[in-house]
Design a protein that fits this description.
With 306 residues, the chain is an alpha+beta fold. Strands 1-8-7-6-5-4-3-2 form an eight-stranded antiparallel beta sheet, with helices on one face. It folds into two domains: 144 residues; 153 residues, 2-Layer Sandwich (Alpha-D-Glucose-1,6-Bisphosphate, Chain A, domain 4). The chain starts with a helix and ends with a helix. The longest helix is centred in the first third of the chain and has 33 residues. It contains seven helices and eight strands. Helix 2 crosses helix 4.
Length: 306
């Protein structure tokens, strides 16, 4: 081994050791956040990666602080999944924001090293300003005053063959849900079948949802139960009455409204509108992902009536 290879190996060993220690401490911190109902707040998705990146940035002997921080965060994500009993979806959702935060924290260190300003007071200010801003952003979801509106409405409109009566007849019966075309959407919990008791007010529909916690194994199943609360000639409204699905950790379902519009040639325009409450922060990161996936669910629901 050359001296360079020995030094690289030693640095990687140090990085791995630091990662293991951080993972253990992070596990305790996440447990505390869960106890206080803050495990969906930005404290977890911004505050934690900020502190992790700061640790790597200030302890790494690597020439590239950004490289060391991102490598350390990668080790953390790989270790934390099994250690914290989190599923693949959690790792997939957390990884991009962890990398973004890590790069933002570490970049000023690299910049100042290149400019040789680490001992200059103005340089020190530049180093801490981004981490400080990120820590302020991590307060989202911790207090009511720092919580962005969590309510969301997503809808999908599609024209299908059949009269309103025909479509309502299908809606009142059991049906299967097709697998989404999007590979990304397949990573998330998805509806498989629906068991219906009818469409009269008070009737219920059970949506069976499955999820492989580790992509191909450790399957988890649950049901969300909806009740018919309104049934008009061109409109049906469901409300959720129970939910034991894995996805309930990330969002809670609201009313679902199905609007029908009769069209010529025995066709019907259906608008499937889903209301839900986002449970994780920050909004700028989590909301687009959830709206995308819920939009696919709305599309699947209409497809099940064809």
């Amino acid at each position: 081994m050359t001296d360079k290879m020995i030094k690289t190996y030693s640095n990687n060993q140090k990085l791995l050791f630091i990662t293991i220690v951080i993972s253990c401490i992070a596990g305790l911190a996440i447990g505390l956040l869960r106890q206080r109902g803050l495990d969906g707040s930005a404290l977890l998705y911004i505050g934690l990666p900020t502190l992790i990146a700061l640790t790597f940035a200030t302890t790494s002997a690597s020439k590239s602080v950004v490289g060391a921080s991102l490598k350390g965060i990668t080790f953390f994500i790989l270790i934390s999944g099994p250690l914290l009993q989190e599923g693949f979806i959690c790792m997939i959702m957390a990884a991009p924001i962890f990398y973004i935060v890590g790069a933002l924290v570490a970049w000023p260190f690299d910049y100042l090293i290149k400019k040789r300003q680490r001992q200059i007071e103005s340089g020190r200010f530049k180093v801490v300003i981004l981490p400080a801003l990120l820590l302020v952003m991590s307060m989202e979801g911790v207090f009511e005053e720092t919580t962005v509106n969590r309510h969301n409405t997503v809808e999908h409109t599609q024209v299908i063959q059949g009269s309103i009566a025909d479509i309502k007849g299908k809606l009142a019966n059991n049906r299967s849900i097709s697998t989404p075309d999007s590979l990304f959407a397949r990573l998330f919990p998805r509806p498989e079948t629906i068991y219906a008791t009818g469409l009269s007010v008070g009737d219920t529909q059970w949506v069976n949802i499955s999820y492989f916690k580790w992509v191909y194994w450790n399957e988890m199943r649950g049901k969300t139960q909806f009740q018919v609360v309104e049934n008009q000639p061109n409109f049906i409204r469901f409300k959720p009455i129970s939910d034991d699905n894995y996805i309930s950790s990330y969002l809670s379902w609201g009313d679902t409204r199905v609007v029908f519009k009769s069209l010529p040639n025995n066709r019907t325009q259906i608008t499937w509108r889903i209301n839900f409450q986002r449970k994780i922060d920050p909004a700028w990161y989590a909301e687009p992902l959830q709206r995308y996936v819920v939009g696919i669910v709305a599309k699947q629901m209409i497809a099940s009536l064809q």
